[in-house]
Amino acid sequence: MDVFSTEDRSRIMAKVHGKNTKPELIVRGLLHGMGFRFRLHRKDLPGKPDIVLPKYQAAIFVHGCFWHAHDCRKGSKPTSNTDFWNEKLAKNVARDKANATKLKAQGWRCLTVWECQMKDTGKLAVRLTVFLKKLVKRAHTGGSRARTNR
Length: 150
Ligand SMILES: [Zn+2]
Hints:
It is built from four helices and four strands; from the N terminus they run ααβββαβα. It is α+β, with helices and mostly antiparallel strands. The chain has a single domain (6-136), classed as 3-Layer(aba) Sandwich (Endonuclease, Chain A). It has a four-stranded mixed beta sheet with strand order 1-2-3-4, with helices on both faces. Residues 145-150 have low confidence and may be disordered. The chain binds zinc ion (ZN). Residues 65, 70, 72, 74-75, 114-116 line the site of zinc ion (ZN).
């Protein structure tokens, strides 16, 4: 499935393959290429989401696989000092969960994207699109009440 026209895709890819390849910048580049406006690191929100789309009340977290204990190769725990790392990383995961719960309670939609997903920006773009399309639809149909056509 290709959700972008060739023109869109090349515009997005041009941004992605720029000099900045940090995960957060990749995500920002993709969103920008799709024409979304966003804000960064809203300190007044739980967990200071990396990217916030105020119009759609959406928060995107860009997580490093190691520090947030992603279930992938990059997220595997160190083999020395295991007690220390287990505790530290478990705390991070618990904090992430608590923040997401708080955000949701305030009406925010959350998406977490992972460092390891930056390898395949095409796939990542699809994930972002799926998430945002739902929100755009919600915004255009006047919120959660207008769900009759689903
Ligand atoms: Zn990962």
